[in-house]
Specification:
Blueprint: H1 3-13, H2 30-43, H3 48-64, H4 68-91, H5 97-105, E1 113-114, E2 120-121, E3 127-128
Antiparallel strand pairs: 1-2, 2-3
Helix pairs in contact: 2-3, 2-4, 2-5, 3-4
Length: 138
């Protein structure tokens, strides 16, 4: 009799969920989170703010990766999450596009500064430097 609840639980777990977002589809990394946000904004027609966001986000992600492989992984995760975020906002919008764009454009990331060498000054005053650059003083 003790095996019945275990078998029942395993049987339920084997069925796919009917929700549009399975737990495995939720963003896990910073690249995926940024990509999902960019995708939703893209679906809602954000233009200039999306270009600014991608310039800043791209430099942040690339500067945090310590290897070329890490950079490539971040780019791939961002791109896939952006596409997924776009599709989700188009197919199953949880928020009206006016709200999405308003919240997107109020993110603190827009208070960052990207320097010509790819370094990024974050809103808290800290710096992220490209892995192949020596930390300079500004």
């Amino acid at each position: 009799m003790k095996k019945l609840p275990l078998i029942f639980t395993l049987t339920l777990a084997s069925f796919p969920t009917s929700t549009p977002f399975a737990a495995s589809d939720l963003p896990q990394t910073e690249a995926q989170i940024m990509g999902t946000l960019a995708g939703a904004a893209w679906a809602c027609g954000a233009d200039k703010s999306l270009r600014d966001f991608e310039l800043i986000a791209g430099n942040i992600l690339l500067n945090k990766a310590q290897t070329k492989t890490g950079q490539q992984l971040a780019i791939e995760q961002y791109a896939q999450a952006k596409l997924n975020g776009y599709r989700a906002q188009k197919r199953f919008p949880k928020l009206n596009c006016d709200i999405v764009i308003e919240r997107f454009e109020k993110q603190d990331i827009f208070n960052s500064t990207v320097m010509s060498d790819g370094s990024v000054k974050l809103p808290d005053g800290s710096w992220l430097y490209p892995p192949d650059k020596q930390k300079g003083l500004y």
